[in-house]
Design a protein that fits this description.
5 helices; 190 residues; globular; alpha+beta; 7-stranded mixed β-sheet
Length: 190
């Protein structure tokens, strides 16, 4: 299957992938790594969606979406690392002063998993970062080996998918997610 990947500038499409079923719910909205902890904790219920709506109207938008025809089927969060909590992380190392971009969340709509959406999202996020001048893009996927990963916790991505996209292991981290270590993977875009 072929999926078209576009900038995440249509709020309703972003909401379809990362928003809650109930408008008042306090779900992530893919803001947990994007916002300082204090602001992330202050934004509750509908305010989280309103914040994401504002991000969708800005340039660059907060990530990319994969489409199957007109239907959004996948989401990837990508932004300059300096604009995320990864810039201050104690568990994911800061390797150098290159103004890298971070790709930290991949979400595929149920019913579309196993069809290559995550691969299209990684490639689309790389193109998006490159088009906005990123010299390097990083990801912090799970290094799960052959072990299965719960789909809810697989949002960070899986190391092998990033390796297939040309990323290389740049460093180990002390971050663990769903019982699996996370690694820092990089792709030089220069």
């Amino acid at each position: 299957m072929t999926f078209e990947v576009r900038p995440a500038s249509v709020f309703e499409d972003v909401r379809a992938l990362v928003g809650p079923k109930s408008p008042g719910a306090n779900v992530c909205w893919c803001l947990s790594y994007r916002l300082p902890s204090k602001l992330n904790n202050q934004l509750r219920g509908p305010a989280r969606g309103e914040y994401v709506g504002e991000l969708c109207r800005k340039q660059p938008p907060p990530g990319v979406l994969a489409y199957d025809g007109d239907q959004p089927v996948g989401w990837a969060a990508v932004a300059p690392r300096s604009d995320t909590s990864f810039a201050r992380s104690r568990t994911i190392p800061h390797l150098d002063d290159v103004p890298v971009w971070s790709l930290w969340c991949i979400r595929v709509r149920p019913g579309h998993r196993g069809q290559g959406v995550s691969h299209a999202l990684i490639a689309g996020a790389v193109d998006f970062a490159r088009s906005h001048g990123a010299p390097v893009i990083e990801a912090y996927p799970l290094d799960s080996g052959e072990a299965r990963v719960d789909t809810t916790m697989a949002y960070a991505g899986i190391r092998t998918n990033f390796e297939r996209a040309g990323f290389t292991h740049a460093a180990d981290t002390t971050s663990v997610l769903a019982g699996h270590p996370r690694v820092l993977m990089r792709l030089d875009l220069r």
